[in-house]
């Protein structure tokens, strides 16, 4: 379970980006984080991933307060970042494979999981292409594949459908809901009201405040 307790976030000496956020995401739940551009969706997901220390409050996973990113990785908090975070000089398959090896999966199992996950994203034909040679949408799906392959206890997906056509957008949404059915707590930042409506809970950010609209 992911629990955000009365958290306030900002950068350096800058203004508060979002204040007094409290929300709980249980295993099996998908929470949409919505709000206009600049409202703080990525900032909130960064804090949930242990990347940005809160100015006040805390993030806890299964009752353990996150200290930093390493601690979050140990607690199986997976972040699929808005900018993909892929290594451009590796192939799609290598990007997934390397992440699995780094998380301690044995090489043969990592190879099988890589092929299976790329296939779920419709990327089997692109497996051996360099990321640099993939389209924006293919890169976005590769980042989703890498995130899903890691089987997180918490999966944080930051605008991961922004470059996808309708069919692939639905595919990614279905896969994120499948992650929840597997037992993950899923958080999905999105601009898209239709995508948010497909999630059972929605946290809306605006003018520095967070309001739970559903859930
Ligand atoms: N590294 C940073 N240093 C300083 N300020 C930042 C940093 N990253 C984001 N911000 C500021 O924090 C605020 C929230 O940005 P954030 O990226 O979280 O919004 P967002 O809701 O994810 O926007 P978008 O939908 O456009 O991705 C913005 O005012 C932005 O300028």
UniProtKB/TrEMBL annotation:
Keyword Nucleotide-binding: yes
Listed InterPro entries: AAA+_ATPase, ABC_transporter-like_ATP-bd, ABC_transpr_LolD-like, P-loop_NTPase
SMART domains linked: AAA
Organism: Micromonospora krabiensis
Keywords per UniProt: ATP-binding, Nucleotide-binding
A single GO cellular-component term on record: plasma membrane
Residue ranges of domain ABC transporter in the record: 2-215
Name this polypeptide is given: Putative ABC transport system ATP-binding protein
